[in-house]
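Many introductory courses stop at the sequence. We go one step further.
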Amino acid sequence: MAQMNFGGVIENVMTREEFPLEKAREILKNETIAVIGYGVQGPGQSLNLRDNGFNVIVGQREGKTYDKAVADGWIPGKTLFSIEEAAERGTIVMCLLSDAAVMSVWPSLQKHLKPGNALYFSHGFAITWNDRTGVVPAKDIDVIMVAPKGSGTSLRTMFLEGRGLNSSYAVYQDATGRAMDRTLALGIGIGSGYLFETTFQREATSDLTGERGSLMGAIQGLLLAQYEVLREHGHTPSEAFNETVEELTQSLMPLFAKNGMDWMYANCSTTAQRGALDWFPRFHDAVKPVLEWLYLSVKTGNEAQISIDSNSKPDYRVGLEKELKALRESEMWQTAVTVRKLRPENN
């Protein structure tokens, strides 16, 4: 385990060099890894594990997602089973269902977890708020987590490109004395670039804050606000979108993703530099109270309860599609469709 300096704070990090794939295979050579759920994280994690030489099976209810698993090469009755049968066969049960689905499946899933098994999550939600979810594992199993910092699609794509998506890891319960080895081996097996230490509670609160904040909610709110201001002051949709979204995603994000915000600033005009340096403190001061409010809502379990209540409704998918349709059909994102078509790589 390497200790690395993150902005003056020392943290534990595990890299592929310190924990090579061969070591991961040795640790898990007698394990049957049952991936439960083939939705968002399931395909990427299971396919990466299979390609890396681990003994993997998938548990999924029949339907479109089951058919996708078959199309990806999972064989019914051999490597593809019902959720209950896969859990029964597995020694490591990777619960990669949605948070709402975990709650509905848990009563039957826990019956198949035997002493010495490992229960694996890629999100701390179910355990952190188990007073609300009802997910309370028995004391005779390991409860572990590896949480890729991105979608399952990104995990798979980066794996195929020979890269790796960073992941956090945690051990909630070590019943066997092997929980940490299992965790790190699985983290390497799914294709993590490196692994950094966390807890279930920290991962859950930071994840929900990030999704509602800078990763999704806040960025959509900020982009829409700037687009609307430009449009209301007479700018055309194409100009407003290019100045708000296209330049950010196509030009500036790659710059600060590569070498940092200061490097991106250094590679912009002096006018842009001056304006950004003057205005970022004003945005910081305006936004931080909202983020403090958001974090408190997450920490107290309010956001978890909202998610549970919403996602448990029988017509949840209908309501979700209605909201996404409104977003998709808004002027800003319809403008995006035309702008993307005009990119040189799409012509």
